[in-house]
Write a sequence for this structure.
């Protein structure tokens, strides 16, 4: 009887994964790109898929609180509650301007500075519920009325709720990370924030997302019609040409480290594959850029300049934080 129950639970879990993949296919352009590459470019791929995949599950005890943070590597987050309940607190800027990250300090509640001048949404998720983030700006360009996922680089906090009546039981949540052409600019700025402050404001790393960027560049270069346009394409190209640096930096508390940092994955698991993927991405990005018209190239250069300026400003902010950290010690 026990083995039968376990088998039934496994079948239910498998069915849930299949259904979830179907539901998420509409928002996951990285999955679409992976399928395109597997079908059309099987012999030309340095890697067939993301080594660690996109799905994950979390079990947490009632009363657990995750302090304000943003999710890793500029990825979209989709979640669904399997059992128990969670309170999702989402904080977003009141304008389109990408807000600068506050620097840690010696105040007791310094993490709350991440929420300064933000608009807040509070969402309770129960079994079967998936996170739906309400539209904030009336002129936001969305395919649907609200986000059926949490957009990249969204600041949020999460609390696991406890039932007033009933048994003490943990909450089980399953989730999925993805990238979408309609939020690629936010993915780029989120990647910059993550690369420089992942040890401060994020809770994990998904650097294997680089392989998905490679797939999307290949899809753009060979696919018809072209899936990415305008600023979404420019953001993808920026990510592809700078993938080696827009990762989880192994931060050291020195002022000069950031300015002399050179990525080295020679001793990392699958390091050769990672390095080959970086080369492949740069080549693909350069091919795409070479086909730009003069007007398109001008718009791309302007976008690149703005993104690079933000990156430089965040680099200086990190250096300032390192200096404060050294002095505090």
């Amino acid at each position: 009887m026990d083995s039968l129950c376990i088998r039934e639970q496994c079948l239910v879990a498998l069915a849930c994964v299949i259904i979830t993949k179907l539901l998420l296919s509409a928002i996951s352009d990285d999955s679409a790109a992976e399928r395109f590459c597997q079908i059309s470019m099987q012999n030309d791929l340095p890697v067939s898929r993301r080594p660690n995949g996109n799905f994950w599950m979390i079990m947490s005890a009632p009363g657990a609180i995750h302090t304000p943070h943003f999710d890793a590597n500029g990825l979209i987050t989709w979640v669904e509650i399997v059992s128990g309940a969670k309170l999702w607190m989402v904080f977003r800027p009141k304008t389109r301007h990408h807000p600068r990250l506050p620097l840690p300090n010696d105040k007791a509640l310094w993490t709350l500075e991440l929420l300064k001048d933000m608009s807040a949404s509070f969402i309770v998720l129960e079994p079967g519920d998936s996170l739906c983030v309400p539209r904030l700006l009336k002129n936001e360009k969305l395919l649907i009325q609200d986000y059926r996922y949490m957009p990249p680089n969204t600041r949020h906090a999460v609390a696991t709720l406890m039932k007033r009546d009933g048994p003490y039981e943990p909450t089980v949540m399953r989730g999925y990370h993805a990238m979408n052409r309609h939020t690629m600019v936010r993915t780029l700025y989120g990647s910059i924030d993550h690369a420089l402050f992942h040890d401060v404001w994020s809770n994990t790393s998904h650097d294997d997302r680089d392989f998905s960027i490679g797939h999307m560049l290949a899809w753009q270069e060979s696919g018809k019609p072209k899936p990415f346009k305008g600023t979404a394409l420019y953001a993808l190209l920026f990510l592809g040409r700078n993938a080696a640096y827009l990762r989880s930096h192994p931060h050291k508390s020195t002022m000069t480290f950031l300015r002399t940092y050179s990525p080295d994955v020679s001793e990392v698991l699958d390091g050769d594959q990672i390095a080959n993927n970086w080369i492949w991405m740069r080549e693909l990005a350069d091919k795409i850029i070479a086909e730009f018209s003069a007007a398109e190239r001008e718009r791309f250069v302007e976008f690149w300049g703005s993104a690079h300026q933000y990156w430089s400003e965040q680099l200086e902010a990190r250096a300032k934080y390192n200096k404060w950290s050294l002095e505090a010690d």
Observations:
- The longest strand covers residues 76-83.
- The CA atoms of residues 180 and 323 lie 37 Å apart.
